[in-house]
Amino acid sequence: MAEVISIPRQVLHQEVVTRLRQRLVEGQIAPGAKLNERELSAALQVSRTPLREAIKMLAAEGLVELLPNRGAVAAQFSAQDVIDTFELIAGLEAMSGELAAQRITETELAEVRALHYEMLAAYTRRDLSTYYRLNAQIHACVNTAARNPVLTQTYRNVNARLQALRFRSNFDDRKWARAVQDHEELITHLTARDGPAVRALLVRHLEHKRDAVLELMQRGELPTAAKESA
Questions:
Q1: What's the whole-model pTM score?
Q2: Which residues make Cβ contacts (< 8 Å) with residue 199, sequence separation at least 6?
Q3: Is 227 left (phi over 0), alpha (psi -120 to 50) or beta?
C-alpha cells in the first residue's frame, strides 16, 4: 500500500530534509546508528524515494555517512575529528565576525539583535530546539554580513558537519549559560564595530564548544568513532 504523503508535493523534498536533519542534529538518531528507511518513512509520512534523496543531501552535508554494505548511518566523529573541525570553524567564524564588524548594516544589526532577544526567550523556557535554531541563524547572519561569498560557502560546508555537536554542547547548564553570555558580548562588539574583539570572542566561543563536546565524549555520553586504518 502506498504511504500517505502529508507534506505538499512542491515542498516535499525540502521538508523531508529539514525534518530528517532535525532528528540527526537533536540526537533522535544517535551518532553511528543506522538510518532505518522503513521506520523513517512511517515517522515522516513519506515514501522512500524522497527519503533517499534527503539522505543523499544530508550525506553531502556530512550529517550522514553512506557505508558499503551498511547503508546510511548517522555521522560519528572521533576526538581528533572534533579538534580538527572546530579548529577550522573557529578560524572561519573569527574571520567572518571581524569582517562583519566592519561591513554590517544597521538593518542587519537590528535583525541580529531581534534574533538574540528571541533566543533569550527560548533560553529562559529551556527550549533547546528553538534556541539552537535561532542561535544558528545569528551565526549565519554574521557570516552573511561579512560580504564574502567564498567565505560564506566554505563556512556553510564546514558548519553543516558540526550541527549535531554544536547542539549537544549546550546540554550542560553552566556551558549553556556561558554561550548565552558570549552572544551578549557579540552584540556589544558588533554594535561598537570592534572587529578584533569580535574575532577573539568567536574563537573563544568555538573553543568552549569544542571542549564541551570532548568532555561529553570523555564521559561516554557521546559515541566516539574510532579511526579506521586504510
A1: 0.86
A2: 94, 95, 97, 98
A3: beta
Q: What domain range is 37 assigned to?
A: 9-74
Determine the distance from the C-alpha atom of residue 20 to the mean position of all C-alpha atoms in its chain, rounded to a whole number.
13
Q: How far apart are CA 72 and CA 25, in angstroms?
A: 15
pLDDT tens column, 124-148:
999 999 999 999 999 999 999 999 9
Q: Looking at the domain assignment, is residue 230 inside a domain?
A: no
- Cα separation, 143 vs 153, whole angstroms: 10
The total of structural domains in the chain comes to 2
Encode pLDDT of 18-71 as tens digits.
999 999 999 999 999 999 999 999 999 999 999 999 999 999 999 999 998 889
Residue in this structure with the C-alpha cell 578560524, named with its chain if needed: 91
CA 6 to each of CA 24, 89, 173, 179: distance values in angstroms, whole numbers, following the listed order: 21, 37, 37, 37
The C-alpha cell that represents 93 in the structure block: 567564524
Report d(CA 135, CA 155) in Å as an integer.
Answer: 15
The reply to whether 60 and 86 lie within a common domain is no
- The identity of residue 79, as a single letter, is A
Rounded distance between C-alpha atoms, residue 192 and residue 173, angstroms? 29
